[in-house]
Amino acid sequence: MRHRWTHALLAASVAMGIAAGTANAQTKTDLKKVDATINKGFDWLSTERDKTGAWRSEYGPGITGLVVTAYLKHPQKRFNADSPEVKAALDWMASLQNADGSIYDADAEIPLPNYNTSTSLMALSAANSPRYAEVIKKAQQFLMRSQTDEGEGATPEDSNYGGIGYGSDPSVRDMSNLNMALQALKDSGTPKDADVWAKAITFLERVQNNSETNDQSYSGDDGGFMYSPGVSKADNDAQGRPRSYATMTYAGLLAFIYANVDKNDPRVQAAYDWLGEHWSLEENFPIGQQGLYYGYVTIAKALKAYGEPTFETAGGKVDWYKELSDHLAAKQTPGGFWPPNEADRWFEGDPVLVTAYSLLALVSGYPSK
User: Fold this and answer.
1) What is the pTM of this model?
2) Would you say residue 346 lies in a domain?
3) Quick check: is 70 in a domain?
4) What is d(CA 324, CA 350) in angstroms, rounded to the nearest whole number?
5) What CATH number does the domain containing 311 carry?
6) Residue 318: beta bridge partners?
């Protein structure tokens, strides 16, 4: 396995790239421009609410949870739980809670209990309001019960142990849903010593192409992440092993850090190195435009959690937030929304969803004061 750019950053040609990258990294992000981009996006979203006060409520609360979380994480705290832009949506999500703590509509077009609970829990936690305290507590408990563990008769030797899926197919546990659930549990204040984190690490090791820690025969050795144990949305490599791809690798990096793994841990560094080698805002390497907007969110959250303003790439150090915010500002339409992804997979053909993703990327990665 390759570790921490130990090959002199690919010799002299790359060294020249570092010099250029370092110079770029020293150019400050234009936060006034970022703020204008953010506010323009929210102004557009405010016109897209439906009769419930939510967004795309026919699909359940999943998209609404993402939108409301973005509003409530506005860097200037422009919105709160009582703001007219989000209050009705927050109350609607809370009203959907079921007896088991899940937050989803079983009659919606896309029920997905775990995913919808995760995005709703993020939003309700971001509201920071005592009126949702009991809803939050129940949703946390539901997500932790959804994790595959001894409660379902699983053991740590089972490849799905520690994982979480959509909830609609009991046979599937995947990196994306685990990542969303861990984000929701982290945002809602789940204690560091909760069992959910250690169990999640067992699953994370099984979806990382890292033969030093992945005990499964399908593992590759590049440090990136696949979708679920033995399965990749980027298909398999020439040896029949599941290929790593960018969105899941950023999600894996973030999940390790949220699960209290030190950023200097070799597992985290293996993911970091893979991402640096494949840094791009133009594609979700190696599957092109598929999942591109979701990728922007995972980039912002993962690199913000990693805690460094610059990112080491094969072309040198980059100011990742400046590059990301400039890229998203350039993609924003004059009307304030972001254009649908022509590679319409995972609902990225919906302008509300991709606008929510873009705003979440901008507010989540926004530099701390």
Assistant:
1) 0.91
2) yes
3) yes
4) 21
5) 1.50.10.20
6) 311
